[in-house]
Amino acid sequence: MTASDPAPSIAILLATCNGARHLHAQLDSLAAQHLRPRLIVVSDDGSTDTSREIVAAFAAAHPELDLRLIDGPQRGSAQNFLHLLRQVPDSIDMVAFADQDDVWMPDRLQRGARALRDTAPDQPAIACGRSLVCDAKLEGRRLSALPQRQPGFRHALVQNIAGGNTMLLNRAATHLLRDASLEARKVIAHDWWAYQIVAGAGGAVLFDTEPLLLYRQHGENQIGANHGLGAQSRRFVQLVRRRYQYWNSINIVALRASAHRFTPENRALLADFAAMRGAGLGRRLRLMRRLGLYRQGLPGRISLWLAAVLGRL
What we know:
- This protein is of the alpha/beta class and 313 residues long.
- Helix content is 43%, strand content 17%.
- The protein contains twelve helices and nine strands.
C-alpha cells in the first residue's frame, strides 16, 4: 500500500469453542500477516478448555494488536459468526472470518484486500479462494479444487464455493450481512449463507486461484473439506438421507427473510427454486432446466440432478 492508496482497516472475526489444541498456531499466523489487522474480535462460545486463557495470553504478548474477547451466544458455530458480524465498528473497511484451527498464509489478508481494491464502494463483494487441505499435523497437503464455473446466485442456492476461512468482505458486504444477520433465525453455515446473501444482492464474489491458508482436517471439524472420494461419498449419503434437502429448507427460510435485499431477478429465482422443490417430477425437471441451477464439477452436477429426480432438493 502507498500514501495514495492507504492500507484498509481490517477486522478479523475469530470464533472459538474448545479449540485450545490448535489455537496457538492460528493466532500466531494472524499476528504474522503482512497486512496488519486493525482489530481482532474473538467470540468464545462457552469453551471448557483453555481457549480463553490462550487468547488472553496472546493479547498480552501482542499489545500492538487491538484484540477483544467476548462471549458467544452458545447457539452453534454459525450463530457465533453472525454474532461476531454485529460487533464490527462502522469504521472498519474489510472483515475476515477466521476458524480456530487453521494456519493462514502471511499474505492472506494482503491478497484479499488487493482483490477487493477495485470494487465499487457501494457494491457488496467477497474475496475468497483456495486452501491447502492437510491433516491435523499440517501434513499431507493438497490443493483444494478450482471452480470450473463462475460464482453466482444460481450456484449459491445449491452449493457453497466460498470457504468462510478464506473470506474477506468489503464494507458494503459487511453492512449487508450484519443487517441480514438480524433477520436470519437459523442458518446451516455462515459462509454458505454469506455467499447466498451477497450473490443474491447482486454483489461480486472473487475467487483467488492461489491457496490462502492451511485448512486443518481433524475429527472435530464442523464441516470439513469437500475433497476426494470419501467426501463425495459422504455427501451422496447426505443426499439420500434427505440431509441436503433439510439444509436447503433452512437456507430458503433465511433467504426469504432477507429477500427484500436481493435484485428482482434473484428474488424471482429464489421463489421459483422454492416452488420447484415441491413440484411433481415432470415440472420439477423442467424448472431445473429453465432456472439454470448448477454445482461445480461433474460429480456435483450429477448429484444435483439426482437430487431433483429423487425429490431431495
